[in-house]
Amino acid sequence: MPGINPKNYPPTAARRVAFLGLGVMGYPIAGHLARAGHSVAVYNRTASKSIAWCAEFAGAGSTNHAPTPRAAAVGAELVLCCVGNDDDVRSVLLGDDGAFAGMAAGAVLVDHTTTSATVARELYSAARARGLHFVDAPVSGGQAGAQNGLLTVMCGGDAAAFEAAQPVLLAF
């Protein structure tokens, strides 16, 4: 899995974030978050990818591998997700080991997966029921955009949730 290319990051306060899904897009996105100075907990279904990511970005800041999405989300102000499809998003967010179960009230979930409007509305409602915030935020720019930290992020959700997430999203 290729890493990321050097970039100057806009100054922002370091945040505790979790990143779920270290595929072609998620691996470099999470890397930019670490290099921008955020404390990043990562989860991937294939644990070896999370472990490799932590080894690559250990010098960038505080990083750790979590065994479940729930464990990654504990203590995170923001949880970012970039997985394959609607069912994958549901599997990492919902249920006893899903990220929603580990998130504290007021935390923000940002979903970078290109999902259906149906699942975005479903997750928005599930987040609200738990006292969480949800931003549907698919990305455009492909693998090169992710590696260079030059993605376009299209956000939908409540203004307060977007404003909380925006400084962190500017890393990529």
Any overview of this molecule?
- The protein is α/β, with parallel strands linked by helices and 172 residues long.
- 40% of the residues lie in helices and 18% in strands.
- It has helices at residues 26-35, 47-57, 69-73, 86-93, 99-102, 117-129, 142-148, 159-169, and strands spanning 16-20, 39-43, 63-65, 78-81, 108-111, 133-136, 139-140, 152-153, 156-157.
- The strands form two sheets. It has a seven-stranded mixed β-sheet, with helices on both faces.
- α1 links the parallel β1 and β2 (39-43).
- α1 runs parallel beside α7.
What is the gyration radius calculated from CA atoms? 14 Å
Secondary-structure-based class equals alpha/beta
Helical content class: 40-55%
Number of helices: 8
DSSP E strands, number: 9
Strand order of the largest sheet: 3-2-1-4-5-6-9
Indicate the proportion of strand residues. 15-25%
* Biggest sheet statistics: 7 strands, mixed
* Low-pLDDT regions: none
Give the SSE string.
Answer: EHEHEHEHHEHEEHEEH
**N-to-C CA distance:** 18 Å
Estimate the mean pLDDT confidence: 96
C-alpha geometry: globular
Give the arrangement of secondary structure elements.
Elements: E1 16-20, H1 26-35, E2 39-43, H2 47-57, E3 63-65, H3 69-73, E4 78-81, H4 86-93, H5 99-102, E5 108-111, H6 117-129, E6 133-136, E7 139-140, H7 142-148, E8 152-153, E9 156-157, H8 159-169
Parallel strand pairs: 1-2, 1-4, 2-3, 4-5, 5-6
Antiparallel strand pairs: 6-9, 7-8
Helix pairs in contact: 1-7
